[in-house]
Each structure stands twice: as C-alpha cells, then as structure tokens.
C-alpha cells in the first residue's frame, strides 16, 4: 500500500457526524442556468429541456425552458421559462451599461408577462430590508411606479390612462419580523385585490462566485423563498395563488462550502498538473464530491452549517441593481413609459 493510499485509508475511518449530504448536483443555487450546468447528461431531443443563448454586446441572454415533469425532476427547477441576463460589466458600476441592461430586462420581462395593457399587477418585494444582501425586493418596491390609487383618486395624472396598467406593490417583510409566512400575506392580498398577475422580486443564492453582482434571472414559474440558502418557505406560484406568478431575482450570496470545495478542487488540480504522479496531493483524488462536501460542512457545523458569503460592495450594488430592476419593471408594466420617464421616478 502506497503512502497516499494509507493516508486515504486512515482518513476514511474518521467518523463524521451525520449531515445532509449534497454533492455537486445539489449545490445550493436558485439559478436555472447553474442547475442546468450541474446536470451530468447532455441535453437530448427527449430531455424536456430547451436551452438557447443570445449575445447582445456586453449582455448575454440565456434561456432555459423546462417542459416536462421528468425534466423538472432532472434539473431541480419547476416547469417554465427561465431567462438569465449575464452582465459581468455590472460590477464596474457603469451607468450606460445599467441603462442598456434595464432596456433588455424590460423587453425580456414583457415577453414573459403576456398580459393585456389594461391588466392589473401586484408586485411583491420579498426579503428583509434590514439585511443588505436580502433587501433587493423592498428596495425595488421603493422605486416602483404604482398606479392603483391613481386610477381611483387622481386619474387626471395618467391622462386617458392608456399605456398604464393598474399596479400595486407590497414589501411584506419576513417571518421572523411579522410572525406570518410571506405566502400567507401575499395570498390575503391577492384574495382582496384580485390582480391578474403577481410579480415577485427577491435576492437569490448562486453556485458560482462569478455570477454574484452580475446576473438577473426572470422566470414564469413562481418562486420558493429561501430555497437557495436552505430556508425553504411555502412556495409562491400560480398553483398556490391562483394567478400567474413571475419571479425576478438577483444572486447576492454564495454558500461558503461551495467556495471551499472549488478551492480544494483547484488546488488539487494545479498540484496534479505541476507534480504529476504519486504526490501527497493525490490523497484527495479518490474522494467523491459527496465526501468532500461532507468534510467541508463538518468543519462549518460550529457556524451553523449555513454560512453564506456576500461581496463587501453589496451596499452599492444593491442600490444600483434595485434601480435597474425598477426601471425595467416600470417600462415593462407601463407601455406608455420610456426609460427616461422611469429614470425620473427612481432615486
């Protein structure tokens, strides 16, 4: 038995406390494009998943269509259309680029909305406004052009009303503050206000560090709050509310265990390239993703096994992206509004 094999044998005898094992395939991510990338098998004609890409200068638009229940189980995402805007340049705080992203966002959102111009829409800003990485939803609501009250009390502001939808908005807070499930609050409002559709805005979790601060996901499948950080709440979907639910999300956190696993793989791979053969770095070679994941999460257990990481620039990013999303929503929800009009409403 070689030294590496002997070391491996000893390590295998270490008793780790039972943890919920999650390999690469079940890494925490709210992004459909990442879930697709984590799939082992290539997409075939009968996979039930359709994927396409479009490059618009600095913006890459990725579309994933989950068509069947079988595909839903394969990818771990509900049936529906998922559109992802990947814009690495957003990290540089470029106002011109932000304007273009808002424009592309508005067009993609309109294609998912599929509602008549006189439809009513409820926008829900999920998240905790007191926790910066989780405050996207409340921030967007502050910059949204709501019109439901204007149609009733001040219709002259909207002229003949053409080109403006009936839009209302709510930031319901979180369970720990209100004592109520977000889905219960939203359900009560839907029952009373009777919107034709609900739009949910929330911060997401990503699998890849490269997608933090640079990605926007749109979906017509609804949302399950907290899923990406292991805190699943009751889903907000067409099935639970009885009306179409569109979701808008931006990844603001990544799981610390994911960073550790990526680092471990990169170090092992680099050593293998520089020192091929039976070096000590080969100790980790027989380990499966589940083995590595279990070891890393064992180390993180004293921290709650749920350590999430966010960039230090998250404050600036949250303000910028809330403005981008609000502009895009304002233009998409109100056909009479231009980006210049939307810019006057956001701050």
Quick overview of this protein structure:
The protein has 347 residues and is an alpha/beta fold. The protein has helices at residues 3-12, 32-37, 69-75, 95-113, 136-142, 148-153, 175-178, 182-193, 238-241, 256-274, 289-300, 314-333, 339-345; strands spanning 49-56, 59-66, 80-86, 120-125, 166-170, 197-206, 215-219, 245-255, 308-309.
Secondary-structure blueprint:
Blueprint: H1 3-12, H2 32-37, E1 49-56, E2 59-66, H3 69-75, E3 80-86, H4 95-113, E4 120-125, H5 136-142, H6 148-153, E5 166-170, H7 175-178, H8 182-193, E6 197-206, E7 215-219, H9 238-241, E8 245-255, H10 256-274, H11 289-300, E9 308-309, H12 314-333, H13 339-345
Parallel strand pairs: 4-5, 4-6, 6-8
Antiparallel strand pairs: 1-2, 2-3, 3-7, 7-8, 8-9
* Portion of residues within helices: 25-40%
Helix segment tally:
13
Helix/strand structural class: alpha/beta
* Uncertain parts: 10-25
Q: Give the overall average pLDDT.
A: 84
Largest sheet report: 9 strands, mixed
H-E order: HHEEHEHEHHEHHEEHEHHEHH
Basic shape: globular
- The CATH architecture can be named as 3-Layer(aba) Sandwich
Distance between the termini: 67 Å
How many domain regions?
A: 1
Name the quaternary structure. Answer: single chain
Supply the CATH superfamily name: HybD-like
If you consult CATH, what is the topology? Rossmann fold
Describe this entry's structure for a reader:
There is one protein chain. The protein is α/β, with parallel strands linked by helices and 347 residues long. The protein has a single domain, classed as Rossmann fold (3-Layer(aba) Sandwich). It has helices spanning 3-12, 32-37, 69-75, 95-113, 136-142, 148-153, 175-178, 182-193, 238-241, 256-274, 289-300, 314-333, 339-345; strands at 49-56, 59-66, 80-86, 120-125, 166-170, 197-206, 215-219, 245-255, 308-309. Strands 1, 2, 3, 4, 5, 6, 7, 8 and 9 form a 9-stranded mixed β-sheet that branches. A hairpin with a 2-residue loop joins β1 and β2 (59-66). α5 crosses α12 and α10 (256-274) packs across α11. The longest helix is centred in the C-terminal third of the chain and has 20 residues, at 314-333. Residues 10-25 have low confidence and may be disordered.
């Amino acid at each position: 038995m070689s030294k590496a094999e002997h070391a491996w044998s000893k390590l295998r005898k270490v008793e780790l406390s039972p943890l919920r094992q999650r390999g690469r395939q079940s890494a925490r991510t709210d992004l459909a494009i990442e879930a697709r990338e984590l799939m082992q098998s290539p997409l075939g004609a009968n996979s039930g998943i359709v994927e396409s890409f479009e490059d618009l200068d600095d913006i890459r638009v990725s579309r994933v269509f989950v068509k069947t229940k079988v595909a839903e189980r394969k990818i771990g995402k509900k049936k529906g259309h998922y559109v992802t805007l990947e814009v690495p340049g957003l990290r540089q705080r470029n106002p011109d680029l932000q304007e273009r992203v808002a424009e592309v966002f508005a067009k993609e959102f309109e294609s998912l909305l599929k509602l008549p111009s006189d439809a009513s829409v409820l926008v829900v800003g999920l998240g905790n406004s007191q926790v910066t990485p989780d405050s996207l939803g409340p921030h967007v609501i502050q910059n949204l052009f709501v019109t439901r009250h204007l149609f009733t009390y001040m219709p002259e502001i909207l002229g003949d009303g053409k080109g403006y939808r009936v839009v209302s908005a709510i930031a319901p807070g979180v369970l720990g503050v209100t004592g109520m499930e977000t889905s219960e609050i939203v359900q009560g409002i839907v029952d009373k206000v009777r919107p034709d559709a609900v739009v949910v805005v929330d911060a997401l979790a990503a699998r890849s560090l490269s997608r933090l601060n640079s990605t926007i996901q749109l979906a017509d499948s609804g949302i399950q709050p907290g899923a990406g950080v292991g805190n699943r709440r009751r889903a907000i979907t067409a099935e639970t509310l009885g009306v179409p639910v569109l979701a808008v999300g931006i990844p603001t956190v990544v799981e610390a265990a994911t960073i550790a696993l990526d680092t471990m793989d990169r170090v092992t791979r680099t050593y293998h390239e520089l020192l091929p053969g039976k070096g000590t770095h080969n100790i980790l070679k027989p380990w499966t993703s589940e083995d590595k994941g279990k070891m890393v999460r064992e180390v993180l257990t004293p921290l709650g096994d749920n350590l999430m990481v966010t960039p230090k620039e998250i404050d600036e990013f949250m303000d910028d992206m809330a403005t981008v999303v609000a502009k895009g929503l304002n233009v998409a929800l109100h056909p009479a509004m231009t980006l210049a009009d939307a810019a006057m409403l956001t701050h």
